[in-house]
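idk why but the lab printer keeps eating my pages so im just putting this in chat instead. protein + flavin-adenine dinucleotide:
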Amino acid sequence: MSFGVLGAGVVGITTGLELQKQFPGAKVTILADKFDKDTTSDGAAGLFRPSTSFTGPNEFVTRKWIKDAYDHWDAIRCTSDAPLAGIAQISGYIFSSEHPHVVQNSRIDKLVPIYKRATEKELTLCPGNWKYGTFFTTLMIECGLYLPWAYQQFQNNGGKIMKRKVNSFQELTSENFDVVVNCTGLGARYLCNDTQLVPLRGQVQKVHAPWIKTFFFGDYDTYIIPGFKAVTLGGCRQLDSYNLNVCPYDSASIRSRCESLLPSLKSAKTIREWVGLRPHRAVVRVEKEKLIYNEKALKVVHNYGHGGFGVTTAPGTSIYAVQLVRETLSGNSKL
Ligand SMILES: Cc1cc2nc3c(=O)[nH]c(=O)nc-3n(C[C@H](O)[C@H](O)[C@H](O)COP(=O)(O)OP(=O)(O)OC[C@H]3O[C@@H](n4cnc5c(N)ncnc54)[C@H](O)[C@@H]3O)c2cc1C
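predcted complex ->
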């Protein structure tokens, strides 16, 4: 059995590992033009926090993706590899002065180990007239550590990694893959001509502030998330913007909003500023497709469009994508 995986971000590498797990002995090859620091996955804060707007094909499947993903990340957290893979447990607050729904999350309230309404006293922990708040414990997956760890695992299992830009699926018909899994993130917009997939631009600052151990969210995309190497300050969400340059106005706004929330950040040195384009799609696409080129068929399973929640949900959609691979191979598939 031979599988091709397009993409080496968090979705591609996690799918590659899942294929190896479910098809021991299969030949799995990852093809991608960008790796590690050049992917969108690399700069994400990596907090496990799916939005209530995160949507799969139906509610049952969406919830299963999220639960499977949490269980997968948490299982690694419980091993001695956790710090190498960049996975840790973390707790924090989400505050709002706007509306109670901002601080409520029905996708995780029964999934994470601690999820509770903030007390009156906790609402005064940060400056601001906070009316609503939630405290919860979740996971943090730092892709700066996870991606290299996962590439190594994949290669140790016999997987092959190739640097290559794929301009059309037709190119792959000569490769003799039984199935190709498409995990190209925003690249799928061009590869699949999928106009439903749009960039949702985000900008963050990575700062040196080792005294911050708790995450904080405020209104208007303001967040402070401690990681292994730095604290991530954010952010913004700009739909349909392809601007990969750091915007000084966004930098100033992020810094000012985060310092208002946690004044001790005023003395935190900026290590790096970063911009990423989240692959936003109203419904994340995990689907089978059979493509025919000059009477040659290519079986594809798509796994893209995770928006701002790809780190959170990659293992869940990968398990589902590999189930679709199995159906495609079994002959039960209509494809
Ligand atoms: C500022 C910011 C903060 C974020 N914070 C979080 C967070 O806290 N939690 C969370 O869950 N998510 C977060 N995200 C979202 C997360 O980063 C994305 O959902 C995730 O990285 C998407 O992963 P991916 O593997 O689909 O895409 P990518 O990481 O973009 O990888 C795509 C891969 O496909 C390859 N590729 C594309 N086209 C081709 C082609 N034609 N040929 C060959 N290879 C190709 C690329 O080279 C790359 O290897 C954040 C995003 C941003 C921008």
